[in-house]
Records
---
Amino acid sequence: MKTADQLRAEASQHEQDAIDSFERCDTDGALSQWASGLSAQRKRLEADLIEAGGVSEFLTLFDLEGNYQPAVAIEARYGMRWMLLDADGKRTGEFLPWLPKRRDTLAKRGYVEGYAVFPAKADFVEGPGGLVGVSVRVRKACPHHALPVKVVTVDRWKEEA
């Protein structure tokens, strides 16, 4: 496994590759310059994750008693939603609002949003617009139904009050 310093050195090399490409061919090398920039971002994020012990904090769903509820945030017809999963990670067919403005929107259905720590990885994420929308993000490095490493808060609204 690479160290955080090794990954940061690789990130610096990717950045230098982009600079060298621009100097050689101006904007004709735009695609390779773009890829080098994204690779540098990913290496730096990987380094940060190594220093954090390979984990990161994620928005998570809990029931009103504070028990972790396996769920995944997905893009649905009318925006982002929580898709509930069973203990084996299979879809239950139930969907809930994601990041509602009021606590009661989820609480009346028996759930609240909180934060928990899970194993994490740096990854390329596809967004709208094809290549233009690709970015680097932290993602869970475990199945969506895996138990958290640590619960930070089971109710984000109580922490904000």
---
Amino acid sequence: MAQIVFTFFLYAIGIAIMGLALYPAVLFFAWIWAKVGFEPLRVRCLWMSFAGVSAYFIFGFSLILLVGLFRFVFRLSLKEGEYPALSIGSARWALVNSLQLLISITFMDFIMLTPFANLFFRLMGAKLGRNVQINSKYCADLSLLEVGDNSVIGGHSTVICHSFERKRFILKKVKIGRNVVIGLNSVILPGAEIGDGSMIAAGAVLGKNTKAEPRSVYFGVPAESVKERRTREGAKE
């Protein structure tokens, strides 16, 4: 029963935030409609087509600002630790990621690899250095994510800072150093720390609490460094 109530609570917050974000878009659309009401039907339809698309972008940017403002006002930053599955900590996590999901499913594809994506990640609490490029909307728990200068997170990569283990909910930071490249479709799990100049190859899965040394290369599932692979193969010989 509690889960159902909480679900409807999340729906209510989503309705409120999305409704407020939609308001300026609707005002703009209605203003254009009033301006072109005297035009011939074909011309009016053309104007309204452009107005509809423009209103969508107004909605998207308004939603980003409102979600960031909501997180800031209610201080919804995540904190490292272990929590029972049913607890205030896990509820906070669900709320924060639900807010991010509003952007992810409505507007994120239009802002990837633009300054607006990094603006959104920062509004959600991520600590990003200069010239960071994130080409994935599958980065969660953003207030526990740290990325250094000039690092790149490749397309469709997954970076998460949470796990569920034996009825416990665990939150742990992911720290990515400077000049790091995280390849396409790779997975970075909670507690990972990636040293400066390292590369995580495409499709690799970097396990929980893995400490990748600076300038190392990790590949495979589960990911291991080139140095570790050579050592293991040398031992077999």
---
Amino acid sequence: MKNEINMVGFTGSTLTILEGKAPDPQNPIAVTITGTIESPYRWIQKKIAGDKEIISSSFVSINRNIGSILLVMAENHPLKDTVVGILEFHPDFEKWDINTGQQATSHDLAEKIKMNRSCFKSKDVAMKLVKDLRSFTAKVNKELESFKDDRANYAMKRIQVVETNLPESFSLLVPIFKGRPKETIQVEININADNLSCSLISPEVNDYIAEFKDKIIDEQIKAIEDIAPDLVIIET
């Protein structure tokens, strides 16, 4: 039986000939992966830990401001592989626009809560809040009606009414960052007394984000150092 010969062609002064059913030659491509903050550690753990040659030509770059960890392998090779881990907000957290200043009407906020009841520990609590928000504007307008001719006290009364018609806060059960478990967070409804628009704020979340970012990056640095102590780690 004759072998099949496939003349692929010249590359410079080299002629490539494939015999039989050998696959066509493929040009190598660099691996570029972006994942959660733990991705560089997991790659090192499963792929290159213990390989002194790769470790010696690789490095990790830390950026605390944006919450990222970059692993660069074979740094001097034109096809060097990279793995990026990023600390990103989870979509279930972002949808609430907490501490963003985004404003909505009480009815729009009520609709958002209704459609995202799964973010509450209790659906009954969520629907009670929906009911309160839907009747909020009507209550305020009714209570202010008798004060509209009293110019001296109208502004003060408006602020008092706005502050006392809704619960001071409510709880959400959501993951704040991708790849992390759900957290119970306290959220306040901030009402603009001028136009009665609503926004969501949470000092607790601000504190958590600031503290957690440094904590998780420190944990990742230690984990990488434990399995690849010779790997260069740089903070930028």
---
Amino acid sequence: MFMLQVLLASLCLAAPSPDAGVLTSARVLEESSPSDWRLVDPEKTLYVDLPAGRVVIELATGFAPAHAQNIRTLAREHYFDDLAILRSQDNYVVQWGDPKADEPAHAKSLGSARAKLPAEFSRPAEGLAFTKLPDADVYAPEVGWADGFPVGRDPKAGQIWLAHCYGTVGAGRNNPADSSNGAELYVVTGHSPRHLDRNITTVGRVLAGMPLLSSLPRGTGALGFYEKPEQRVSLKRVSLASTVPAAERTDWEALRTDTPTFQRWLEARRNRRESWFVYPVGHVELCNVPLPVREVMRTRY
């Protein structure tokens, strides 16, 4: 039976694809070279270990340096461990933090992390390499990619910022713009809420594990907050990848956005030529060009 399964699998692999020779997303990645990929820095990688598995986050240190540093400090000092996912709002976000953050007498100590940070909604665009998406955008004069992240840019104002695409990670805040410190984080799990751009500090993006977040039961309270403690999902551990033992680490690569391969990827997303598609649109939105990532398979001894 095993040999039959292997034979059938080999026949399936050998069968010609109806999309053979067509510029598809899958073909672009298959034909990429090692130089088209960049290794994600473990010092910028956050592991969020849930009971069901691991979520991997790349921190955007070039866009929110103060918040990224604070988050790394919180992770190194195990602040997030045993806290909880507090909110899962349909077609919007999943959010985690300290359930008792609003009770000073019972809130978990921030340790050596800073309690107050400046708002980091955007940064100067000068000196930052930018790969422009030629398609028009309704939320920014220009959009594209910088430092490996989807961004909006205003050439006249000289500012650039992270865009709220699916999987974007942000720092929750109250009404004051400078009321976030990275102790409460959210992930976009619904249709891209670009109206949040430049209204909140975005700190990174999820590289892997999105199904663990997007499949969570929706909260029944206002804004999707869980009304009962037993509804919350525990954070087993949140760690900086560089501090995790090698046997427990996963290394990741992301497709570079400054290569001809990325331009081919972009074209494959703009005009879907797979046999299923009838009409090649000829346009694409920023958040409909997900940046490919892949796990680096390491030999373990």
